[in-house]
TrEMBL record:
Protein origin, superkingdom: Eukaryota
Biological classification of the source: Eukaryota, Fungi, Dikarya, Ascomycota, Pezizomycotina
Keywords: Membrane, Transmembrane, Transmembrane helix
Organism annotation: Aspergillus heteromorphus CBS 117.55
Listed name of the protein: Integral membrane protein
Membrane-spanning residues: 31-47, 52-72, 122-140, 152-172, 278-299, 391-419, 439-455
Length: 480
């Protein structure tokens, strides 16, 4: 195909090459996951129902955590830039209407084929939300904190979510470092908004040298036979990339105009309170408090707080406050008594080896010297340190619980709103809620709840023989 005489041979336009969010992490399954976590908090007093909701949410989040491990272990490796020579297009060209992201006023480009993995946004949303929800659950739910087997399983899930969150937070910033991508088209054949890859033809890049891209592009637009072999009306070098866990044909390229342009995708929220630094700080603080509360239950330390549950602390708030006051007064009294030198002075005056009058000056100098260091050194006695440390640890635990009650739920909501904004800017969902891939998880959770409810009613529907057999077996196990 030959362009008009007053038009360039071909033009370059910036595109956004990305693997769209997988169906597993699309909008409906993701919102169902949030609903399951909320249902777990609401039904925490039931035990069995909360186990069903949390089990469904944990398996979903566990899959996302495993994908986070795979993504961070295989980061994208970009080849060195390849210099590309393109025809010069002036800024006042009439091609802007057909090519909104047209490259103008230059004859050289640096080409680095690459593609974005948009699953990173969804994986980050899932694993971090699951981890942040762990903190209010362990403070509000008695079922999770007083059943040792359940609490052990819950702690393992917490460790998995923490590792997944760290992996996702490490991989996620690499999306912003992805190099700009370009497509090359005839001036009279503009590309469509979104083009899917049909796989890469190795003949379109005969060698792996950096100059091969330039020669391949010019060959395509100067040879009609080479152009006819393209699967699309434009040439997309980014289709020559791959990503773990993805089919190459699922890669899509869209014109990088408006909100699709990468530098503008993260512009709005960086100007408001829910910035990356704010969210990251809350996640780090939540991780510290999670670890503190876990150690509070694992270490053999008998705190002034009777429990890590909010309701128990609120019911005994008067006793707890009175205990804090007693601990504080006791620590002050011990430090004051140790720093008071009167007892030592009296003992010296009545001691049988009291110095003679001619040594009075030396004795007074010694006493003055002791009075300058004795009060400060008494603060470091074992008894005083133990009193102050007990008061400090109880205060830290109480502050951690207050954070869990007030700030932690707001942190979960803030993070979900923040990350869903990013996901919304990634583009529309691949499937609508009508497709089976979207409503299938909801049906699976429904059947799981129904099955758990039937098993919960086993003693109401069981026959007398079954109950007698179970009682007999229980007695035999107790005897053994």
């Amino acid at each position: 195909m030959n362009p008009p005489a007053d038009s360039p041979l071909f033009v370059a336009e910036e595109v956004l090459c990305a693997y769209p969010i997988s169906t597993l992490y699309d909008s409906c399954p993701r919102y169902l996951f949030y609903a399951l976590l909320l249902a777990t908090c609401v039904t925490r007093w039931t035990g069995w129902l909360a186990d069903v909701f949390l089990g469904a949410a944990a398996t979903y989040a566990g899959t996302a955590a495993i994908q986070a491990f795979i993504l961070v272990s295989s980061p994208p490796k970009h080849p060195p830039p390849s210099p590309i020579t393109i025809p010069h297009v002036p800024d006042n060209t009439t091609l802007w209407s057909a090519f909104p992201a047209l490259i103008t006023n230059t004859t050289h480009l640096d080409l680095i084929p690459a593609a974005l993995e948009l699953d990173a946004d969804a994986v980050l949303a899932i694993v971090v939300t699951a981890y942040l929800t762990f903190l209010p659950l362990q403070c509000w739910s008695r079922a999770f904190s007083h059943n040792r087997a359940r609490y052990l399983l819950y702690t393992l899930w917490h460790i998995l979510m923490l590792a997944g969150s760290i992996s996702a937070l490490i991989y996620w910033p690499t999306l912003a470092d992805s190099p700009s991508q370009y497509t090359f088209c005839f001036p009279d054949l503009p590309p469509t908004n979104t083009v899917s890859s049909d796989g890469w033809d190795p003949s379109q890049r005969p060698s792996s040298s950096p100059s091969a891209w330039n020669s391949s592009i010019w060959t395509i637009f100067t040879n009609a036979t080479a152009f006819d072999q393209l699967d699309a009306i434009c040439f997309y070098p980014c289709f020559n990339t791959s990503q773990p866990l993805r089919q190459q044909s699922s890669l899509e390229a869209s014109v990088a105009s408006g909100d699709n342009r990468l530098p503008q995708r993260h512009q709005f929220w960086s100007e408001v309170v829910y910035s990356k630094r704010y969210i990251y700080s809350l996640i780090v603080l939540t991780a510290i408090i999670n670890s503190t509360l876990l150690l509070f239950k694992i270490l053999p330390y008998r705190s002034r707080l009777p429990s890590a549950r909010v309701l128990t602390i609120w019911a005994q708030r008067s006793n707890i406050l009175a205990g804090f006051k007693r601990d504080f007064r006791s620590a002050i009294r011990i430090s004051h008594s140790n720093s008071n030198p009167n007892s030592n002075t009296t003992a010296t005056a009545t001691h049988p080896f009291t110095p003679k009058p001619h040594n009075t000056t030396i004795l007074q100098t010694t006493r003055n010297h002791l009075s300058t260091w004795h009060p400060s050194s008494s603060l470091f006695t074992l008894h005083a340190i133990g009193s102050w440390m007990r008061l400090l640890l109880d205060t830290i635990i109480l502050c951690a619980l207050l954070f869990s009650i007030v700030v932690s739920p707001l942190t979960v909501v803030a993070f979900v709103v923040w990350i869903e904004y990013y996901i919304h800017r990634d583009g529309p969902s691949q499937e609508t809620p009508r497709q089976v891939g979207q409503w299938e998880p909801l049906v699976a959770v429904g059947f799981l709840v129904l099955s758990a409810g039937v098993l919960k009613m086993k003693y109401w529907v069981a026959s007398g023989e079954e109950l007698d057999e179970e009682i007999r077996g229980l007695r035999e196990r107790l005897v053994v």
